[in-house]
Amino acid sequence: MKNVKWLPTYDYNLILSDFRCQHYERFGSRKAGVTNSSSRHCPLAQYIVTNYNHKPMKQSFIVFLSFVFFLSGCGAPARSSEPSASIETIENKGSDTIVNLALAWAERYQELHPEVRISVTGGGSGTGIAALINNTVDIANASRQIKPEEIESAKANGSDPVEFVIARDAIAIIVNLENPVDELTLQQISDIYCGKINNWRDIGGEDRPIVRLSRETNSGTHVYFLEEVLRLGEKENKTLFSTDTLLLPSSEGISAEIRQNPNAIGYDGLGYVTEDMKVIAVARDASSPFILPSAESVNSGAYPIARDLYMYTNGEPLGTIAAYLEWILSPDAQQIVAELGFVPVTP
């Protein structure tokens, strides 16, 4: 032991201070990016400082210290000087009819373009258009066209809505599977929803009261149904929903009520129709054929309750938003439209 050269006491603490407990920081529970030079925060270093005056400890200390310095130099992960790629964010809000489609598009597009993040929320067409008017969203989804008064409000607020047709949809008239009624004319549907027809026996069904289901008033589907079905597309027609119509906040809410209520009638986008509900064939009038909704009957114009689905931007889109909308109209994205039960706008 005579050949061992001892370091002075202050050197032990100085070396430990410079070491900064790097070994403990990598393998302990310290918060990343936070460094403390005092050995009192490292249990291993504290033990060494406390016991270094004992000769057995001194004999092994230099060997140990060399070893941990080797670990601290070789074990630390290399840090790249390259800056991380910037993330582009697109805010997309509006129609509940479109929300599942928009979510599927966003998921697929982010797989193709990891540098883009797309936030999708519903709330109804009116909510999305209001957000566009207030400049708080990049893309507004709508299951109806923007109204002239909404365009005026947008321009007064410095916005300039630009319209894109991104898919087509049929509004299906749906009832419970137990309901024997299979066919209705547009006039009969209008009479049901305005309260002129209140019992299923009046239209070939059982002696049961009709329970009317509708989306809420901020829904684009509600507005379209009011204007094109209740009012039969007549501009001067002021027919309103019966006051006992149940207003539900989502397409899923209507579907759930239809499944459990044999007296209910509702309407929903074709993409929300499932096998556990009955779809009614609809005729324009008593002399016209009764047609079920489908991609074919929508594209041919045979089904009478069909519409376009829209996205709106503030002015002509540029950059990331323009690229996203261009992709939405591509065959890849339009295939997702068909998979979800909507009607593609491009082959």
What does this structure look like?
There is one protein chain. It is globular, with a radius of gyration of 33 Å. The longest helix has 20 residues, at 55-74. It folds into 3 domains: 9-74, no CATH class; 89-168 and 312-339, D-Maltodextrin-Binding Protein, domain 2, CATH 3.40.190.10; 169-307, D-Maltodextrin-Binding Protein, domain 2, CATH 3.40.190. The chain has 347 residues and is an alpha/beta fold. The chain contains 13 helices and 11 strands. Residues 1-83 have low confidence and may be disordered. Strands 1, 2, 3, 4, 6, 7, 8, 9 and 11 form a 9-stranded mixed β-sheet that branches. It has a two-stranded parallel ribbon with strand order 5-10.
Q: Which descriptors apply to this entry?
A:
single chain, 347 residues, D-Maltodextrin-Binding Protein, domain 2, 3 domains, nine-stranded mixed beta sheet, two-stranded parallel ribbon, 13 helices, globular
Structure described in brief:
With 347 residues, the chain is α/β, with parallel strands linked by helices. The protein has helices at residues 9-19, 22-27, 43-51, 55-74, 96-112, 125-133, 148-156, 186-194, 220-230, 251-260, 295-300, 319-328, 331-339, and strands at 88-94, 116-121, 139-142, 161-175, 183-185, 211-215, 246-248, 264-269, 278-279, 281-283, 306-314. Strand 6 (211-215), helix 9 (220-230) and strand 7 form a beta-alpha-beta unit.
How are the SSEs ordered, and which strands pair?
Blueprint: H1 9-19, H2 22-27, H3 43-51, H4 55-74, E1 88-94, H5 96-112, E2 116-121, H6 125-133, E3 139-142, H7 148-156, E4 161-175, E5 183-185, H8 186-194, E6 211-215, H9 220-230, E7 246-248, H10 251-260, E8 264-269, E9 278-279, E10 281-283, H11 295-300, E11 306-314, H12 319-328, H13 331-339
Parallel strand pairs: 1-2, 1-3, 5-10, 6-7, 6-8
Antiparallel strand pairs: 3-11, 4-8, 4-9, 4-11
Helix pairs in contact: 6-7
